[in-house]
Amino acid sequence: MARRTEWPGGGADSSRAEEEPPPQDPAERARAVCLRLLTGMPRTRKQLADALSKRGVPEEVADEVLSRFEEAGLIDDAAFAGAWVESRHHGRGLARRALARELRTKGVDSSLIDEAVGRLDAEQEEATARDLVRRKLRATRGLDRDRRLRRLAGMLARKGYPEGLALRVVRRELEEEGEEIEGLDLDSP
Question: What distance in Å separates the CA atoms of residue 182 and residue 32, rounded to the nearest whole number?
Fold first, then answer.
């Protein structure tokens, strides 16, 4: 909490004097909130609309301000979705399904999601899955083959990879490592 002291002119000063009081005009307040939120990182229109709603900005004012920000290019859900897919696929190894789910929670339109996620092809997704499995193989050494397969396939499943792709990639990587996989039982605990 800021400490306030009275100065001889009757005004109050605080250690946060550089902060201006929030604007009283709802449109000004909405612009200030949007600019502050966009300074840290890109946001979707829905994320900004939700933030404005929480701060009591009337919906019609929020829509007007958000539309102006879109016209100025400060809000671009298509660019956001494309950058999100690129970043999260290469950085975290997420598959198309997981990326689509994340973008839906951020309020991106389904056509924009399809377009952004569609930039990842099946070969690229499989190559990423192989890289993820190769990085985890060492940590599973010493476990029996069934457990290794389940752990590695489970890791891929949590990242949104389809079961068939996950099992195919894990089996191939285990074979390349020299693991015998014939007769592998996927249902044992």
Answer: 62
